[in-house]
Write a structure and sequence with these properties.
The strands form 6 sheets. Strands 4, 18, 19, 20, 21 and 22 form a 6-stranded mixed β-sheet that branches. Strands 5, 6, 7, 8, 9 and 17 form a 6-stranded mixed β-sheet that branches. This protein is 35% helix and 24% strand. It is an alpha+beta fold and 661 residues long.
Length: 661
């Protein structure tokens, strides 16, 4: 991180905020940049980059010209930032409104919009104290974006850059290169869709992100303008659901209980031949062949698609991609010493954004302990002190001591007495407005959320505060978060609220068995509309996570739940809880699959030149790892232990042999 660049941006911002008539480029060059190199071209490029960075943070840099002169003449052009136009309007929220806003900010499990949501929330908190609120007991709905492609598309969409990628066309089954102007991203029918203008076909098209077969490339040197009034929700509402189809699948006898539960009667007699000895023939209904292919590929040699041919081809393609990846040369890599952080590496812009939230927060929260301030902003004390050191050295160009920011923290309690008009947060960026407003809209589908009026009122207040940036929220639509089985969801939620123990019958696909167990439920959470609950399981005497749609039966058993403390990990809840005796497994992930390192809480990672990742992940049960490799179809492979890598390779070969036969 370049400290000098951070200081320069901050001092440029203060100078432009505190001038009524504007400053000429020559004045800024001398007083802020202290540049006497005489290289006008290099300085001009640096100044333009800095202006663009400030605009990206929410500051409108105004260009003023003397009467009769052109903006092309640096000698007669002045620059300033209007204070009011760059400030976030005051937003007064009550306890119920803060409750739904906190839930909305926590929805984005990770990715760029998760960072943007937390940044927007801190801006709202910076202008006043957070009301004392109590979130619904143990309920944490979350949105899981569609991997790295989602982040890349959101960044391109907000910057208005076209993108390119290879795409598996549903009509032809062939991979095709696409160049698209991304207009919007949304979730429907359990899938994420990109809507945009396909340049090759000269027409709007929608693309299912699960069909992207390459990483997304952002064409940074090109720009486009989206259509006025575009709304991704309206477009997806017109998208027809795929028709219901049937698949004929041969399953090894005594195996795959989860698939057998969904089998229907009839239709198997249409297959060309009878199943082999030791196999049963099932008929399974489905809509999306890619979704079912992902599941069937994970079953490997225990399942064989008999019909239709396109589904069999989709399963074979996934198995072949996984097998080819396992046979590729192992790249050179070196693990970093620390656990990976979900956020990208900090930049000067990131640090400046944090400092601009820090100043108004300190103004309205005088005397907080420096440890509490650092915790609020999610940084270490050392990082916070580095921010403060830059702030106290910043101020008006060539100003007097009273023209500098004045902050003290000698006694570990932080006070600010001179804020240079940085006492109010900056207006929302496009990403921040999208993250919060999309999250609030998603909460409309959450069952049992009290305060429906609060949800509507806080949405209207944020729309008014966001201004034009809030209109961009129409480019992103979140998924439905309502659970598939509302009764099971309600039973678990009531048990959490009342502190009751539950008895349930649970189907575990990894072990291919149904077990009876008593559990003490701790919290409910979701990934889109797939709901889980974390509980202390008395069968294994440890923490476990259970999917609600795999619960066969659940009821209170009349006993109170035990006390197990606050669930580890805070928000978001962890989908996997590692134990000390778990097996460390080294896996290689492609750029498309690198998000799995965060999903499975990798302990160490190593970056690869192609954008992929090598990660060390702890697994309690390693027997299912071949299923894991096949399911992700060429995005992950096992490197170590060698025995597990060989087992996965042999398992994939046996799976492909079934289809070859």
């Amino acid at each position: 991180m370049s400290v000098s660049r951070t200081e320069r941006l901050l001092n440029l911002l203060i100078a432009l905020l505190n001038t009524r008539y504007g400053l000429h480029r020559s004045e800024l060059r001398e007083k802020v940049y202290h540049d006497s190199s005489g290289n006008d071209v290099a300085f001009g490029r640096m100044f333009e980059r800095d202006k663009n960075d400030l605009r990206a943070m929410g500051f409108e840099v105004e260009t003023l010209t003397d009467l009769g002169w052109s903006e092309d003449d640096p000698a007669t052009t002045r620059y300033r930032i209007g204070k009011e136009s760059s400030r976030l309007p005051d937003v007064q929220l009550g306890p119920e409104e803060w409750t739904v806003l906190l839930l909305a900010s926590q929805l984005w499990e990770r990715a760029a919009l998760g960072t943007a949501a937390q940044s927007a929330l801190r801006k709202l908190q910076a202008s006043g104290r957070l009301a004392d609120v109590e979130l619904p007991a143990g309920v944490q709905p979350r949105i899981k974006p569609a991997g790295q492609a989602f982040d890349d598309l959101v960044a391109a969409m907000h910057a208005r850059h076209p993108v390119s990628f290879t795409y598996l066309a549903g009509s032809t089954g062939q991979e095709e290169e696409r160049r698209v102007e991304p207009w919007g991203l949304g979730s429907r029918f359990g899938q994420w869709y990109l809507m945009g203008y396909d340049r090759a076909r000269n027409a709007p098209r929608h693309f299912r992100l699960s069909r992207l077969t390459s990483a997304v490339t952002v064409l940074n040197k090109e720009h486009y303008s989206p259509p006025a009034g575009f709304n991704i929700r309206a477009e997806l509402d017109r998208l027809p659901e795929l028709p219901l189809r049937t698949a004929v699948v041969d399953v090894r006898q005594g195996r795959l209980l989860a698939l057998r539960r969904r089998a229907t009667a009839g239709g198997a007699d249409q297959a060309p031949a009878m199943p082999d000895v030791g196999w049963d023939r099932l008929v399974v209904e489905y809509r999306d062949p890619e979704v079912l292919a992902e599941e069937l590929a994970s079953y490997g040699p225990d399942a064989l698609v008999v019909a239709p041919a396109d589904l069999a081809g989709a399963v074979r393609r996934r198995l072949r991609a996984a097998a080819d990846f396992t046979s590729a040369p192992v790249p050179a890599y070196a693990f970093s010493d620390t656990r990976p952080r979900a956020a990208r590496k900090g930049t000067s812009e990131d640090q400046l954004k944090r400092m601009l939230q820090l100043v108004p927060f300190l103004v309205h929260n005088q005397g907080l302990h420096i440890r509490d301030v650092a915790k609020h902003f999610g940084v270490t004390r050392e990082e916070l002190e580095a921010d403060l050191q830059i702030l106290i050295c910043s101020g008006l160009p060539e100003g007097y001591p009273d023209d500098l920011l004045d902050i003290q923290w000698d006694d570990d309690h932080v006070y600010i007495t001179q804020d240079l008009d940085l006492n109010r947060p900056v207006r929302f960026t496009v990403a921040e407005a999208c993250a919060l407003l999309t999250g609030l809209e998603t909460l409309n589908t959450l069952p049992g959320l009290h305060g429906g009026g609060a949800l509507e009122s806080v949405t209207l207040k944020l729309l008014a505060a966001a201004g034009e940036e809030g209109l961009a929220a129409a480019s992103i639509a979140g998924p439905q978060v309502a659970p598939g089985d509302a009764a099971t969801h309600a039973t678990v939620r009531q048990a959490i609220e009342s502190g009751s123990q539950l008895h349930m019958a649970y189907l575990s696909p990894q072990r291919d068995a149904v077990t009876e167990r008593d559990v003490d439920p701790l919290r409910l959470y979701s990934l889109d509309n797939t709901w889980y609950f974390e509980a202390w399981c008395h069968l294994v005497d440890g923490l476990r996570n259970f999917r609600l749609d795999r619960i066969q039966e659940v009821r209170p058993n009349g006993r109170p739940a035990g006390t197990h403390g606050t669930p580890e990990g805070g928000v978001p809840a962890k989908l996997f809880t590692a134990n000390d005796d778990d097996t460390p497994v080294t896996v290689q992930l492609t750029r498309q699959g690198r998000g799995l390192a965060e999903d499975y809480y990798a302990e160490r990672t190593a970056e690869l030149p192609d954008g992929g990742l090598v990660a060390e992940i702890r697994f309690g049960n390693t027997a299912w790892l071949p299923m894991f490799v096949a399911q992700h179809g060429g995005m992950v492979r096992i490197l170590d232990p060698v025995g597990l890598a060989d087992a996965a390779r042999e398992w994939l070969a046996a799976s492909l042999d079934r289809y070859a036969g």
